[in-house]
Amino acid sequence: MFYTHVLMSKRGPLAKIWLAAHWEKKLTKAHVFECNLEITIERIISPKVKIALRTSGHLLLGVVRIYNRKAKYLLADCNEALLKMKMTFRPGLVDLPKENFEAAYNAITLPEEFHDFD
């Protein structure tokens, strides 16, 4: 009646989700990014074969854990990018000579030439 061994075999479509639900430490970063949660949730909600309620609960726990890891990785990447931007544009890090702090008038002003547009 319930074919969970087919779904959660090592090469099954929901194997990574089952792994996330029960052995979270064995889940690698590559597994997390490789998993498409939208398709996975569709497979859990409307499976081709019947899934027991308890099994679908375990699978949903795996989905939540993978989503949690994806959010943590995204937060870490954003914090790293923000830190790099702050380090790049920090004040006091100017390596220009003092005479080049201001641009010459001719370098930043366009000539006033008006043409007929008719």
Automatic annotation (TrEMBL):
Residues 1-100 form the Rad21/Rec8-like protein N-terminal domain. It is found in: Nucleus. The keyword Acetylation does not apply. GO terms for cellular component: meiotic cohesin complex; nucleus. Keywords: Nucleus. Pfam families: Rad21_Rec8_N. GO terms for biological process: replication-born double-strand break repair via sister chromatid exchange; sister chromatid cohesion. One of its GO terms (molecular function) is chromatin binding. InterPro entries: Rad21/Rec8-like (IPR039781), Rad21_Rec8_N (IPR006910). This is RD21L protein. It comes from Crocuta crocuta. The gene is Rad21l1.
